[in-house]
């Protein structure tokens, strides 16, 4: 029955496992060459570099800003300086990160056009992306309630003075050639048949 078939299959597997695989040095070398060739044909030489960079721009950079938390700006309270608004302090929060594909302003087209690696190489420029971060600024101040003016115990209350969110330019991030952020990736083309990417262009030099 089914039990006998299962027992027979297990016995055959044990028998095969006990048989040593005889492979000469020549056969082993041939196997390694073929395995290496298939691997590099499938993934290429620099796939680990591209995958690492793509993971950073997709997840790592956002996680970096998320880890910063809130930045509290709280100046010292000087009672001698009287004025409207009381004692102000601010809280800065970082939100979404936006990376734009490399581009430059074209006077001819009067618009941003894609910036290709070969243009950065020929003009000694850095192939980089514009990085913007969503920043929320909350400003509030502390003031005494009317009860304190009547001789009662001081009661300090918080009042919101400003709460705004803006996209702020943080800086430029170098773009790895042929990564997901590279213009060549979306255009499905290459600067050269023999160039597979995996490097940066800083002031026209490959790094």
UniProtKB/TrEMBL annotation:
SUPFAM superfamilies: beta and beta-prime subunits of DNA dependent RNA-polymerase (SSF64484)
Pfam name, any one: RNA_pol_Rpb2_1
Organism: Eragrostis curvula (weeping love grass)
A GO biological process held by the record: DNA-templated transcription
This protein's name: DNA-directed RNA polymerase
Gene3D superfamilies xrefs: 3.90.1100.10
Name of the top EC class for this enzyme: transferase
GO CC terms, sorted: DNA-directed RNA polymerase complex
Enzyme Commission designation: 2.7.7.6
Keywords: DNA-directed RNA polymerase, Nucleotidyltransferase, Transcription, Transferase
InterPro entries, per the entry: DNA-dir_RNA_pol_su2 (IPR015712), RNA_pol_bsu_protrusion (IPR007644)
Superkingdom of the organism of origin: Eukaryota
Domain RNA polymerase beta subunit protrusion: 44-207
Family: Belongs to the RNA polymerase beta chain family.
UniProt xrefs under PANTHER family: DNA-DIRECTED RNA POLYMERASE I SUBUNIT 2 (PTHR20856)
Molecular function, one GO term: ribonucleoside binding
Listed transmembrane segments: none
